Amino acid sequence: MTVNHIQKTRSLLLAALLGIATGDVAFAQQARTRTLTLDPATGEWMEAPPPPVGTAEGDLHAISVQISAGQHRSALKSIKKSIRRYGETDSVYPALLIAQAEALVGRCDYVKAHKVLREFLTSFQGVELTSEAIRLEFVIAEAFLAGAKRKFLGMRVLSGADFALQILDTITADYPETGWAEYAMKTKADHLFYRSNEHLLAEMEYARLLQDFPRSRYHQPALLRSADAVLAGFRGIEYDEAALVEAEERYHEYRGRYAASADREGIGRILQGIAQQRAEKEFSIASYYERTAHAGSAIYYYRSVVENWPRTLAAVKARERLDLLGAEESAASAGG
């Protein structure tokens, strides 16, 4: 199995996982319309009756039922009426904003939903609904990353990926103490690597995640994907090998920390592939010196290939060149 094949396989697995995650998010968008309360007499949880219609809480409950049923247009009309009726100073107003954003998400009007959520997060930070607002922001970002278009003059023609990345950056910057922050950073890094092929930027995001959240639940995949990103940034033996060296170090760290997973994921084969490429890189340097009549330098690099990567094809070729250059005999004479 080649390095590229392993990376492609990992990409397909990630795509499948993203599909599952998207389904989970869609399910999580359903509003909870039932309220359970503990009966102290029996010790059992009982379904509480809904608040009476005509009160702020009752209207909010009715709106949540509409959203749960997928009646998003009707819910938006009800929200508008409730805001007019109770005003922005009523205690139910923050919940109405969250309901409005959720209904807009249900109608795929993500930009308007984002504006409502920004209004909420600016005015009501610290309330219980903040986590729900961040979750909806994340839903919006994932929708744009999945291909949703932004509207321009009524037509959906503008890519929303950059807009989504801005949302993720805001979540990371403004809510670092929440689980959403590290998930936002990971999501951005995954998008840059797997969908945009911006490997350098992806590697920087993975490295930032590992630094800012050393005990993150995403540490293992972030470490692996950071190595993948560095390796993907290597442009060939004609260029600097720094990316290969860095990738090799990270794969060794990954195998040291997560040995069982590394065996399943073929990290050993990837390291073998890196060794082959580093050996070829060194061999190409030796060949250059040989072509330019710098025999001493050529011999030095050919020997480096043999000593550092003895089990590679480049090492076999290097031994042949050393024999032709008489390097072994010269070394023996010098030793005598």
The CA-CA distance between the termini, in Å, is: 46 Å
Oligomer: single chain
Percent strand equals 5-15%
Give the mean pLDDT. Answer: 84
Order of adjacent strands in the largest pleated sheet: 1-2
Q: Could you give the count of β-strands?
A: 4
| Portion in helices | over 70%
- Taking Cα atoms only, what radius of gyration do you get, to the nearest Å? 29 Å
* Main sheet attributes: strand count, strand direction, barrel closure: 2 strands, antiparallel
Your description of this structure?
With 336 residues, the protein is mainly alpha-helical. It has a domain at 266-330. It has helices spanning 3-28, 56-68, 72-86, 93-106, 110-123, 130-145, 161-174, 179-195, 199-212, 219-232, 242-257, 259-264, 267-291, 295-308, 313-324, 327-335; strands spanning 36-39, 44-47, 149-152, 155-159. It has a two-stranded antiparallel ribbon. A two-stranded antiparallel ribbon has the order 3-4. Helix 2 packs parallel to helix 4, helix 4 (93-106) runs antiparallel to helix 5 (110-123) and helix 14 packs antiparallel against helix 15 (313-324). Mean pLDDT is 84; it is low at 1-33 and 329-336.
In short:
By secondary structure, the chain is mainly α. It has a domain at 266-330.
Keywords:
mainly alpha; single chain; two-stranded antiparallel sheet; 71% helix; 16 helices; 336 residues; disordered N terminus
SSE arrangement:
Layout: H1 3-28, E1 36-39, E2 44-47, H2 56-68, H3 72-86, H4 93-106, H5 110-123, H6 130-145, E3 149-152, E4 155-159, H7 161-174, H8 179-195, H9 199-212, H10 219-232, H11 242-257, H12 259-264, H13 267-291, H14 295-308, H15 313-324, H16 327-335
